[in-house]
Write a structure and sequence with these properties.
By secondary structure, this protein is an alpha+beta fold. The chain has two domains: 27-171 and 326-391, D-Maltodextrin-Binding Protein, domain 2; 176-319 and 407-445, D-Maltodextrin-Binding Protein, domain 2, CATH 3.40.190. It is built from 16 helices and 14 strands. Strands 1, 2, 3, 4, 7 and 12 form a six-stranded mixed beta sheet that branches. A hairpin with a 2-residue loop joins strand 5 and strand 6 (165-166).
Length: 447
């Protein structure tokens, strides 16, 4: 199954770390310079001054790296082929690797001059790679194309800025959604998807009465922390300080969010120990009725033949909110030192952004507002959760945050959902651990 957020691929897509992070221990340190941010500190010919016109220099080949190894791969391959057909003087050498390998290999390869010229990475990885001088600013590209925050889905534009420079151009936004078994709902007499805590509770009770013993399995691992973050924001909390100084999820909002997740087990809607991927496999096999998972699962579900529906995640807290991430195009420092390569890379990024409606075929949501009005998106399955786009929340642009989250926040969610530790104790302990790591990162990255 395709896991866009920080998982390592298994079967048809990614597993646990293909999407969002790399393992703790400083994979970004290999072959990289110090912790000083690069914004405004370079004097390289290739950076700045992009006109917005299509590249008309000598023919060249760009190394393009990405991690689209799952159901999104064919859609990206088609876009790359279309770009090369329209640009005779730019060819692309496409290097597609699993996301975990991508983030592990990128810094050392870039430092050795053997990395990409252009690529795609997750929004929450931009700050780390900018701080490590792996990627270069693209402010001139955004300016030349007239791109601004108002052109994109809410909240996705800001996290692409690190130390006052822009390092990414959003291709998409992706989030988690509620999938439900249409046949189970019909059997239980449920005519509409649940929209809040009360209607979800009523649906689960009706499904149990219809013979579905455990209708809503609650995972204690992936994507449990994405569910927790969504609920935290719904209850009015924030996971981290914007300046990267501390973790802030150990408050009343965090406790409410995590307690609700454990309640689904206590109420009998979920088995007690739902291991990684188990809830999704069970959903495909018709063993449960409702699951929350990423929209990157859409293509896999389409192929499975299950009769399913898709809806926004219910508003359990006080306001609608959902975790979000985004694939962003970047230009590397390697390309930034050569004017032709830099302009060719920016031509590619601009073209891909403009043509991103086709990316809907990958199960993603185009980031640009104008593109979401095109039929490729309006005819897609994910169009059904379009209203959730306005409620997405993204992690702040804090270098090293991915390495912090895995051994802290995810551990807290795991222990509390399993009932090993109370939500308050689990969050307090791990927020303290996370804050210590974040303070160390502030020193390491010089921010």
């Amino acid at each position: 199954m395709h896991r866009s957020p920080l998982f390592v691929p298994t079967r048809s897509g990614l597993t646990r770390r293909g999407f969002l992070t790399v393992t703790a221990g400083g994979l970004f340190l290999a072959g990289c310079g110090g912790g000083e941010g690069v914004g405004g500190q370079r004097d390289q010919e290739g950076v700045g001054g992009f006109s917005g016109e299509a590249y008309d220099g000598p023919a060249l080949s760009l190394a393009y790296w990405n991690g689209f190894t799952g159901g999104d791969g064919p859609a990206m391959q088609q876009l790359v082929a279309s770009f090369m057909s329209a640009h005779d003087n730019i060819s692309l050498k496409n290097n597609t690797v699993e996301w975990a390998d991508f983030y592990q290999r990128l810094p050392a390869a870039a430092n050795a001059g053997k990395g990409p010229d252009v690529g795609a990475m997750h929004l929450d990885q931009l700050a780390t790679n900018a701080a490590r001088q792996v990627i270069a600013p693209v402010d001139d590209l955004a300016e030349a194309l007239g791109l601004a925050e108002s052109d994109f889905a809410p909240s996705v534009w800001g996290p692409g800025i690190y130390q006052d420079d822009r390092y990414g151009v959003p291709l998409d936004v992706h989030t988690i959604a509620m999938y439900y078994n249409q046949d189970h709902f019909t059997k239980a007499g449920i005519t509409e998807a649940p929209t809040d805590a009360a209607s979800l509770d009523e649906a689960c009770q009706a499904l149990q009465q219809a013979g579905i013993q455990n209708p809503f399995w609650m995972p204690n691992q992936w994507p449990a922390h994405l569910m927790f973050l969504s609920l935290l924001w719904q209850f009015g909390g924030e996971p981290y300080a914007e300046d990267g100084s501390e973790a802030t999820y150990d408050d009343e909002a965090g406790e409410q969010a995590l307690a609700w997740m454990r309640d689904q087990v206590d109420k009998g809607y979920s088995p007690d120990n739902v291991d990684i991927d188990t809830q999704y496999v069970a959903f495909k096999n018709g063993q449960n009725s409702i699951t929350w998972d990423g929209i990157w699962q859409i293509n896999d579900l389409q192929e499975s033949g299950i009769n399913y529906g898709i809806a926004q995640i219910p508003v359990i807290g006080d306001e609608a909110a959902a975790w979000g991430n985004s694939h962003n195009f970047f230009m590397s420092e390697q390309a930034a030192g050569d004017e032709n390569r830099a302009n060719a890379a920016k031509t590619f990024i601009g073209w891909m952004s403009d043509q991103s409606a086709s990316w809907s075929q990958a199960g993603m949501i185009p980031a640009r507002n104008s593109v979401r009005e095109q039929t490729e998106f309006t005819d897609s399955v994910q169009y059904g959760i379009r209203e959730q786009i306005d409620t997405l929340h993204f992690l702040p642009p804090v270098p090293g945050l991915g390495d912090v989250q895995i051994p802290t926040l995810e551990v807290a969610v795991n222990e509390a959902v399993l009932g090993k530790t109370s939500p308050a104790d689990a969050l307090s302990t791990q927020a303290g651990n996370a804050s210590k790591m974040m303070q160390e990162n502030l020193e390491k990255f010089g921010s």
